[in-house]
Structure formats: C-alpha cells, structure tokens
Design a protein that fits this description.
Layout lengths: L4 H19 L12 E11 L4 E11 L2 E11 L2 E13 L2 E10 L2 E15 L2 E7 L3 E8 L2 E9 L2 E11 L2 E11 L2 E13 L2 E11 L2 E13 L2 E11 L2 E13 L5 E9 L2 E11 L4 H5 L28 H8 L5
Antiparallel strand pairs: 1-2, 1-18, 2-3, 3-4, 4-5, 5-6, 6-7, 7-8, 8-9, 9-10, 10-11, 11-12, 12-13, 13-14, 14-15, 15-16, 16-17, 17-18
Length: 323
C-alpha cells in the first residue's frame, strides 16, 4: 500500500480546518464589534534531559495570512529557523518553505503546496510530489475527502452527521481495486456539547476498540481532555491529560499537556485585534483535532489520530515534511 501516514495526517488536519472555517464567518468570540486573530504561538517542551522553546509569528496583509516565521530559543535569544510564505493567486494559495542558512532565507525547492480555496474553505490540496486531495461538501458540511497519488485513488475519509452534529468519521485506504476500512471515530453529545470520542481500527472484518477521549467543560469551554485505552476488555485510564485556559474574552490562551513528572508541554497563544484567515491554514492543533481552537473554544469537533508525532503538522506548515 503506497498510502503515506504523513499525508493522511495532513488530511485529518485540513478536514477539521475546513469544518471550522465554514462554521462561522466571524473570527471573534461572538462580539461582532471586536475581532481577534492569532499573532504568536509559543511552545515549551521540558523533559528530564533538556528544554526546548519554539515560537511561530504570524504576519498578515490586511486580513490575509501571508507569512509564518518560526524561531527557536538559544539561551535567551530567539533565532529565526524556518518560515513559510503564502502567495495568493485568485482562488489558489501557494505555500513555499524556507530555511535560514548563514543569515539568508533559502527556499526548499523539493517541497511546495497549492490549495484551492472557495468561500473560505479548501476544495483542492496539491502537493509537489503528485499527491492531490479533493474535498467534497454537501451544503455547508464537509462529507468526504479523497486523496489521489499520481492520478490514482489512495485514501479517503467520510463524515456522517445527524442534523448539524458530526457523529462518525471513517477512514479507508485503496488497495487491490477496492476500498478497505482503516479507522473509525464516533462522537457523542450531551445537551449539544461533545462529551466523548471513541476510536476503533478495522481488523478481522470487525471494529476493534482502541482509544477514548472524555471532555470536561466550564460553561461552554473545554477545560480538560482525559484519555483511555482499551485493554483486557475494559477501558484503562492513561496518564496523559490535556488542560486548557482562556482569557476574559473567552479566547484560548494556554494548552498544557500532563504526561509524567519527566515531561511537560505548554503551548501559548497571543492575539491582536483584527480579522484574519489563519484558521484555514492553522486548523486546531498540530496533532490532536479534539482540541479547542483559538477563538472557537466550544466547537463540535471531528476526530483525532493522537499516535502521530505532534511535529508533523508543524513541519508541514513551516518546514515541509521529513524525508
């Protein structure tokens, strides 16, 4: 099977991005008189061996995101490492990646992305290595994404709704002339709030439970996600937990990952007044799509593939994918 998990991760990521960008035309927290957009994202990784600090700065021209610059902190100094430039040509947006070498930005000639965006939602995604993804909608709902490699079917995701609520997401890969089920995510709600996501993988002609995510709210804001895994015919709690904090405007400002005494991860958002289209490109999170998103803290989300390395989507935006 020539399907590549890296590309599939990007499709999950952009699927959610599309649903979010279509959910509302307003980038604010509900007050039409004030709009905010993300201007900076800071990440801190701490383990028993070392600390790492990264920062992404988002630059806009009017309401369009045009540049993402990534920094890494050395001692107390922030050093430019990578950047992505977004070039708008009618309905198409091209993303070009650069790396800082000897004080000069050098373009990555081996990696580029083009996106067709109509009415603030992605319709076609093209990679420089003959991969293409086509996004299909029914009204304002994303119902399927199909990926092609060198013109042939490769991978697809289907989305099933009850009313306006996403209930189920199923991924398939194409092999030997037919579609074969791979992963499934089922969402459940209480009083309109998503409370649980259950994932399963397809094996021996049946679905096998794999992981469960349980959500805790304060008002309409998700403040905690707890993880469980299926083991010996029961759900076992994981040590991994995620915590979220919001400012007085209801905007997401901090994500904290609780995993062990030896490891911690904190992600912080800074905002500025103004409208911006960053959500089309940034989605919710680099690797887990059940997160709250900046400016949309109480969304009804689709699915997650938490076993992927969290840096892959970040690399997609600012560095290109690893070889």
């Amino acid at each position: 099977m020539k399907a590549n998990k890296l590309y599939h991760t990007i499709l999950w990521f952009l699927a959610l991005s599309c649903i979010l960008s279509c959910s509302s035309d307003d980038e604010s927290n509900g007050d039409d008189s004030i709009n905010f957009r993300v201007k900076e994202i800071t990440e801190t990784y701490v383990n028993s061996y070392s600390d790492r600090h990264n920062k992404s700065v988002l630059l806009y021209n009017n309401e369009l995101l045009t540049e993402i610059i990534e920094y890494e902190r050395e001692d107390s100094t922030w050093e430019e490492e990578y950047k992505s430039e977004l070039i708008y040509e009618g309905e198409w947006v091209s993303v070009k990646d650069f790396e800082k070498e000897g004080g000069i930005w050098v373009e990555d000639q081996n990696w580029s992305i083009r996106m067709k965006i109509v009415n603030d939602r992605i319709e076609i995604l093209e990679y420089s290595d003959d991969n293409q993804a086509v996004f299909n909608y029914s009204g304002d709902k994303l119902i399927a994404i199909q990926q092609f490699y060198d013109g042939e079917s490769d991978f697809k995701i289907e989305f099933n709704y009850t009313g306006n609520d996403l209930q189920e997401t199923i991924a398939y890969y194409y092999e030997e002339g037919s579609w074969k089920a791979s992963m499934r995510y089922k969402l459940s709600y209480v009083d309109g709030k998503m409370m649980q996501i259950m994932s399963a993988y397809y094996d021996n002609e049946s679905w096998q439970d794999s992981e469960k995510q349980v959500f805790t709210y304060s008002g309409n804001n998700i403040i905690k996600i707890e993880y469980y895994y299926w083991y010996n015919e029961s759900w076992e709690p994981s040590s991994n937990k995620l915590h979220f904090e919001y400012n007085s405007d209801g905007l997401l400002i901090t994500e904290r990952e609780e995993y062990s005494d030896q490891y911690s991860y904190v992600k912080e958002y800074l905002y500025e007044e103004g409208r911006g289209n960053f959500k089309i490109f940034m989605g919710i999170n680099y690797y887990n799509f059940s997160y709250p998103t900046p400016q949309k803290p109480s969304i009804k989300v689709l699915a997650s593939e938490t076993y992927f390395d969290k840096s892959l989507i970040q690399r997609f935006l600012v560095k290109g994918l690893p070889n």
